[in-house]
Amino acid sequence: MCRRAEALTMQWPKRREADSQAPEGAVLIHALDGFLTAGGAPRLAAEALSTGEGEIIHSFDVDELYDYRARRPFVTFQQDHYQDYDEPRLDIVLEHDAAGTPYYLLAGPEPDFRWEAFVGELRDVVTDLKIPLTLGLGAVPMGVPHT
């Protein structure tokens, strides 16, 4: 590999050790906020699928993937200072539905940069966890009258 290619190779953070074994047969649902998001449908679906009690299995390095100038996170300004901001996150979370069936949820901002590296890392995680099926959520806008 040439030196230039080595310099561009992303070093991904290690996958976090899960508190439990990876459940067999759990599917991965991905709902990325970006290109195919008419009406915010994937984000709304991800919010409905997220229990808030899931276990983060893998975190992607958003600083390597996200264009902060194109999609600035919301910032909370309180009286005379910046209080907080909505930190963009891109995580794979192990969730369970009401019947206890496990599934993985990948939700967050669609990468602006380094798609090939992102997909390669995602493929590695899917292989490591033996995920048999991935489901993508998207919403394509249609140019039809809504009357």
Highlighted features:
Rossmann fold; alpha/beta; 5-stranded mixed β-sheet; globular; 147 residues; 7 strands; single chain; two-stranded antiparallel sheet; 4 helices; 22% helix; disordered N terminus
Number of domains: 1
Low-confidence stretches: 1-16
Major pleated sheet:
5 strands, mixed
Order of helices and strands: HEHEHEEEEHE
Strand content: 25-35%
- Distance from first to last alpha carbon: 58 Å
From the 3D structure, determine the CATH topology.
Rossmann fold
Radius of gyration: 17 Å
Average residue-wise pLDDT: 82
Strand order of the largest sheet: 2-5-6-1-7
Describe this structure in words.
It contains 4 helices and 7 strands, in the order H-E-H-E-H-E-E-E-E-H-E. It has 147 residues and is of the alpha/beta class. The chain starts with a helix and ends in an 11-residue tail after the last strand. It is globular, with a radius of gyration of 17 Å. The chain has one domain: PAC-like subunit (Rossmann fold), CATH 3.40.50.10900. Helices cover 22% and strands 25% of the residues.
